Structure formats: C-alpha cells, structure tokens
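thought: user wants a sequence for this fold. calling inverse folding tool.
action: design(structure=
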C-alpha cells in the first residue's frame, strides 16, 4: 500500500480495521460438549417436541430465574406475543411504541388489531406514559410497552395509567431477559411478559420465546393455545395453533443459561470499554445502563448528534461498514414508516416527534462474546478519529455521493 493511503479510512481507500466483519448480534455459544450431550439424550429418548423433558426443564429454569409461577416456552417470541394477546382477547386497538422491532406491531396487525403508535418520552427511548392517556379510546383493549435495550420502561407509571383505564398490559421484554426494575426481575410485571430467545439474543435457543405470568388462568389458556387447544391426548377444548418449542431448542436454551454469568460479564466488560472510549468524543452519547440493577448489557447503543459531529448516521454507518464494523440503525425508520402502517397512517410521524428525532440518531455497535475488549478499543478509536475530522470527512463523503441521507440538516448548517 502506498504511503499516502496508510492511515486512511477504508471508505477512502485505506486498509479496513478488521479483516472480517464484526456484526451486531452474533450468537453467543455455551459449552458445546454440554449441548452435544443434551442432543444425544434427545436422540436416545426420541422425544423431539410436544413439551419433552428439556422444554419442561427450560420452563422451570426461566420461571425460577424471573420469579413467576408460569413460563410457557414457544417456538419464537413473535408467536408468543400473538398467542398471549389473543388469549387476553385484545381487539380493535392496542397502544404500543413505533420505536421497536417490527414484530411488536406485526403480532397485533396479523390478528387485525390496529397498533396505535405512541410517542416516546422526550430525551428517552421508551413509551411516554403521559402520551398514552391521549390515545385511549373506547376501542382500546390493551397496552403493549417495550423494555428496549434491556433498559426497563417507566413500568410503575404505565401500570398506573393502565389501571385507571382498566387496560391489561403485556410487556414486550424481548431485550430484557436477565434484567431488573427496582430490584425485581423483568418478567413479573403487567398481566404477562414475553421474552425472545432468538439467535441474536444474549441467551438463545436457536429460535425461541416464552410467555411468563403469575396469572394461573391466563397460563392455562396460553398453554392450550400453543398446542392446538389440546387438553390431554384426544380432547380439544380451545382454538389454538402450533407454537411449541422443540427439544433441541430447549437444549440450546439450557446450555445458554448455564453460561449466562459469563455472557453477562463479557458484555459488561465490552460496555465498560465502549463507555471509556466514547465518553469524551463530541457528538456521541452512549446509552448507559443502571449498574445497580441486574442487566444483560446486550446492546451497545449510541446517539449521534450530527450538528456536533458533522457526520450523519448514514455516513457513519458506511464508514464503519468499510472498516468491517457492521453497525445497525435499530429501529430505523420506525414501524410507522414501514408497511402496511405507512399506508394506513401516512401522517403518523406528526404525532411522533420524539420518535422521529431519535430514529435519526441511533446506531447499535457490535458486542457479545465474539467481540473482544481489544476490538472495542479499536472501534471507539476509529469513531473518535472520524469525529475529530468530521467536517472534512462529511464534506468528502457528500462530494462522493448524492445520497439524500448524507445531507446535514439545514438547522445544523445555519
């Protein structure tokens, strides 16, 4: 490589920081020998599904860990959301944020329930309880908040609002397994909560999810509905579908749980390295965790203030990608700007100013057991270098591309 290309950003012809891409959400792997032994056991007893012994053990472990009476393991978190909201007879309209993965909204819309998108709190990432009141109508049947990034939303206030309007609350806690709120484990709030154990989650079962609740009647109904409504061998007593978790998924889930302390500690160390490397970088705000609570440290989330950095989110994403750092714009551009919702509610963004503002700033960065502290230090050093030369980098990128999302807002340029 010529001398004038040494030290250049890869997007301008330099050598990438990493030889292979570092991704957000690479699966954590537990003890392989333990997993193989469990798989051998499955093959020996030849019970592959239909709530075999490993699924029952997995359910017991989850219920004990979060402190609830019931855990119903599912094939994935989306089906878990669909079944529990149907079991609660949600209909017409349900209040939920747009700042979430699309599955939250789709789980409702799939059942012809309208997701009514509520704005997030100013300066925050979670549902604004004060705005919920404005959206309650006679058609409202429930509230579906999201514990985003593993950071709990304002649970107490949301529950207070819900109680006033007598609306059941189901928490989408796909990100929040192993986390707590005011010392109590996530999973024990609302009428029910839903976890995801998808491969990208810090505890995974390849695919998988669960409904957790202390409501005995609801648990019985959910368990019926996730197994075609069967009660016993031949008696069908309720409408249902197939939402069951398989034995091999439970084997992976149990193996993951055994490594949970190591996964959390690795994530915590990466988070600390990101915090140390970014805390003085202008225009970068790392979303912090309350370390007084239980936390999985699963997501590294930054807000990029392009008015200070002179680099847009789209530019930063491309810069990092060229360096083999596969950052993501979770959950850009928001559920309300995806189909079918943007066609149903073309002006929804006018009611979601805080959501729209945040979605233009957020990037998630690689972490997990496939990413080392040393790699994190290289990532933060690179981001600091980009921001240090932000204006010249931004101008050069805009000259190279006519992409609209590369343009700095006029309010910043004024």
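)
observation: tool returned 414 residues.
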């Amino acid at each position: 490589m010529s001398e004038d290309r040494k030290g250049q950003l890869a997007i301008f012809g330099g050598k990438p920081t990493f030889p292979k891409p570092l991704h957000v959400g690479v699966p954590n792997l537990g003890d392989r020998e333990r997993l193989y032994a469990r798989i051998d056991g499955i093959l020996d007893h030849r019970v592959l599904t239909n709530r075999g012994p490993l699924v029952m053990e997995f359910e017991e472990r989850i219920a004990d860990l979060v402190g609830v009476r019931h855990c119903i393991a599912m094939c994935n978190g989306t089906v878990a959301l669909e079944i529990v909201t149907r079991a609660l007879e949600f209909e017409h309209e349900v209040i939920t944020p747009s700042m979430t993965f699309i599955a939250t909204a789709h789980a409702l819309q799939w059942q012809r329930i309208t997701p009514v998108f509520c704005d997030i709190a100013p300066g925050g990432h979670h549902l604004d309880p004060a705005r919920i009141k404005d959206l309650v109508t006679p058609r409202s049947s429930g509230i579906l908040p999201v514990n985003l990034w593993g950071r709990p939303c304002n649970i107490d206030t949301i529950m207070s609002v819900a109680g006033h309007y007598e609306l059941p609350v189901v928490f989408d806690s796909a990100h929040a397994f192993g986390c707590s709120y005011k010392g109590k484990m996530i999973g024990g709030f609302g009428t029910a909560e839903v976890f995801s154990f998808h491969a990208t989650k810090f505890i995974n079962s390849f695919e998988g999810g669960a409904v957790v609740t202390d409501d005995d009647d609801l648990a019985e109904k959910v368990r019926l509905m996730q197994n075609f409504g069967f009660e016993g061998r031949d008696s069908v007593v309720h409408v249902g579908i197939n939402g069951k978790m398989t034995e091999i998924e439970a084997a992976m889930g149990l193996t993951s749980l055994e490594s949970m302390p190591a996964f959390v500690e690795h994530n915590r160390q990466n988070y600390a390295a990101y915090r140390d490397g970014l805390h003085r970088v202008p225009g970068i705000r790392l979303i912090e965790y309350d370390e007084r609570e239980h936390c999985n440290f699963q997501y590294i989330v930054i807000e990029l203030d392009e008015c200070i950095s002179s680099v847009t989110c789209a530019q930063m994403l491309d810069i990092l990608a060229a360096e083999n750092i596969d950052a993501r714009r979770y959950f850009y551009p928001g559920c309300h700007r995806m189909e079918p919702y943007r066609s149903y509610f073309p002006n929804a963004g006018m009611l979601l100013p805080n959501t729209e503002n945040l979605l233009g700033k957020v990037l998630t960065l690689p972490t997990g057991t496939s990413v080392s502290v040393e790699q994190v230090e290289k990532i933060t050093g690179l981001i600091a270098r980009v921001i240090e030369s932000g204006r010249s980098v931004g101008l050069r990128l805009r000259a190279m591309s006519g992409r609209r999302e590369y343009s700095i807002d006029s309010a910043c340029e004024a």
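thought: summarizing for user.
answer: Here is the designed sequence. The longest helix spans residues 260-278.
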